[in-house]
């Protein structure tokens, strides 16, 4: 059985259209609540969200569904995804829920689920929830005297701020650093500036005026142009960009050049390795991470373990191999000494901690390796199985031959939209570009939308 609702990171779609409707949210809550209702204790679910207008649609529908199966609901309001994961554990909840479409525009929304351990659900758990939805879920309803209740946790933000500050090495301060923080008009618009300020930094905050529509629009980790310009204009030491739910981070040096998750993982891993804190003698990343990162680690006697795309797969590999640094090129970085999911703010603080021992500017201290030329392009298709077509297979073989042994070709179907992602990497940028275009052209010629 394949998943129909869940993609690589929960359920996601256009708000008020299937599957992101109030009706489906209600069914999802009933099904998830039924799966995580075990034992005689009062069952509890925590729900957080980002700043999208449609959160007002999805939140009450989920709340009603959970209450109908006897779960008490703790509403957190706008709060980063990692804060919800942390509070799920801290409050001993049976389930954690985040209403967010992460880096997508405001028109989209999504639902992410966390188990009692604060980790994203397994494929098996998601399949079981989908089966319960298909079965109707009527049997999960409780008697009227067993309904759950809803309450708001007024100090959720403060709890998260203190949790993040506690991850910063004892005795270190950010005094003397001028930092521009871009919160993407998203879930961290209050938490991130507060954490940096309380740790001593001079803070310039942008992307902190959410209106329900401007989340990720011209700001945040997926559009760093405004941050890059502001860092230079303010003569700041560096900049930090979070995405809409603050589970990913991209950073900018004092010259306005951005650094992705690969560079940030390299810096944290190197710092922790030097201090004897790095476990597993390496880093876990996905197939999308740059070969430059792999070569950098290998030169230092460290390994790079690759997984399929998705931070939950990264976490699974980290647990299996006892690694404590892992993540994605996009900036989802998991530091399992502190978190069970990507936390953009905690990751940024660990980068800052590594930089505090440097006498060099960020532009010299943060860029530890030269990335190999890499090209990623989406090929849209209108159904069918384009990767099974003879002409597409032939194009893939030719592209692989073109790149040679020093290059890499990666092709995968998106888990959230009807596109096939084609990525190539190698020493020659022009060759990489031609390889990607050849495969994309073949896919769109046979199954283009």
Verbal overview:
α1 (22-35) crosses α4 (123-134), α5 crosses α6 (191-198) and α8 crosses α11 (344-355). The longest helix has 19 residues, at 429-447. It contains 14 helices and 18 strands. A 6-stranded mixed beta sheet has the order 1-5-4-2-3-6, with helices on both faces. It has a 5-stranded mixed beta sheet with strand order 8-7-9-10-11, with helices on both faces. The chain has a 4-stranded mixed beta sheet with strand order 13-12-14-15, with helices on both faces. The chain has helices at 22-35, 55-68, 81-90, 123-134, 156-166, 191-198, 225-234, 261-274, 291-299, 311-321, 344-355, 362-365, 390-403, 429-447, and strands spanning 11-14, 43-49, 71-78, 95-99, 108-114, 150-152, 178-182, 202-206, 238-242, 249-252, 258-259, 282-286, 303-307, 325-327, 333-335, 374-380, 408-413, 419-425. It is of the alpha/beta class and 449 residues long. It has 4 domains: 11-154, 3-Layer(aba) Sandwich (Alpha-D-Glucose-1,6-Bisphosphate, Chain A, domain 3); 177-258, 3-Layer(aba) Sandwich (Alpha-D-Glucose-1,6-Bisphosphate, Chain A, domain 3), CATH 3.40.120; 260-365, 3-Layer(aba) Sandwich (Alpha-D-Glucose-1,6-Bisphosphate, Chain A, domain 3); 374-447, TATA-Binding Protein, CATH 3.30.310.50. A hairpin with a 5-residue loop joins β17 (408-413) and β18. 36% of the residues lie in helices and 20% in strands.
């Amino acid at each position: 059985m394949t998943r129909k609702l869940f993609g690589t990171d929960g359920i996601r779609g256009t708000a008020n259209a299937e599957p992101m409707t109030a009706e489906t949210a209600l069914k999802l809550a009933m099904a998830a609540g039924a799966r995580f209702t075990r034992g005689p204790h009062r069952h509890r679910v925590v729900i957080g969200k980002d700043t999208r207008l449609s959160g007002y649609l999805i939140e009450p529908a989920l709340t009603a569904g959970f209450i109908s199966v006897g779960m008490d609901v703790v509403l957190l309001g706008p709060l980063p995804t990692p804060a919800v994961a942390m509070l799920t554990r801290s409050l001993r909840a049976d389930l954690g829920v985040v209403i967010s479409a992460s880096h997508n525009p405001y028109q989209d929304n999504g639902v992410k689920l966390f188990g009692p351990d604060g980790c994203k659900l397994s494929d098996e758990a998601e399949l079981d929830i989908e089966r319960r939805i298909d079965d109707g879920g009527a049997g999960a309803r409780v008697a009227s005297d067993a309904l759950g209740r809803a309450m708001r946790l007024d100090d959720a933000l403060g709890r998260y701020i203190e949790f993040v500050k506690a991850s910063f090495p004892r005795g270190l301060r950010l005094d003397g650093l001028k930092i521009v923080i871009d919160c993407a008009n998203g879930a961290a618009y209050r938490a991130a500036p507060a954490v940096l300020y309380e740790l001593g930094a001079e803070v310039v905050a942008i992307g902190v005026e959410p209106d329900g529509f401007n989340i990720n629009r011209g700001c945040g980790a997926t559009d760093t142009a405004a941050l890059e310009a502001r860092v230079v204009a303010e003569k700041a030491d560096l900049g930090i960009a979070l995405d809409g739910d603050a589970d990913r981070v991209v950073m900018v040096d004092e010259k306005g050049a951005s650094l992705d998750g690969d560079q940030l993982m390299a810096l944290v891993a190197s710092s922790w390795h030097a201090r004897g804190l790095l476990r597993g003698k390496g880093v876990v990343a996905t197939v999308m991470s740059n070969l430059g990162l792999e070569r950098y680690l290998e030169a230092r006697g460290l390994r790079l373990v690759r997984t399929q795309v998705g931070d939950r797969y990264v976490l699974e590999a980290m647990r299996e191999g006892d690694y404590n640094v892992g993540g994605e090129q996009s900036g989802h970085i998991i530091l399992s000494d502190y978190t069970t999911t990507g936390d953009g703010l905690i990751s940024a603080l660990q980068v800052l901690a590594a930089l505090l021992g440097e006498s060099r500017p960020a532009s010299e201290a943060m860029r530890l390796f030269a990335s190999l030329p890499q090209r990623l392009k989406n090929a849209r298709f209108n159904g069918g199985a384009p990767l099974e077509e003879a002409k597409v297979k032939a194009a893939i073989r030719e592209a692989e031959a073109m790149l040679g042994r020093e290059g890499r070709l990666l092709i995968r179907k998106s888990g959230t939209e009807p596109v096939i992602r084609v990525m190539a990497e190698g020493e020659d940028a022009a060759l990489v570009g031609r390889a990607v275009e050849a495969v994309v052209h073949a896919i769109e010629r046979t199954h283009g939308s």
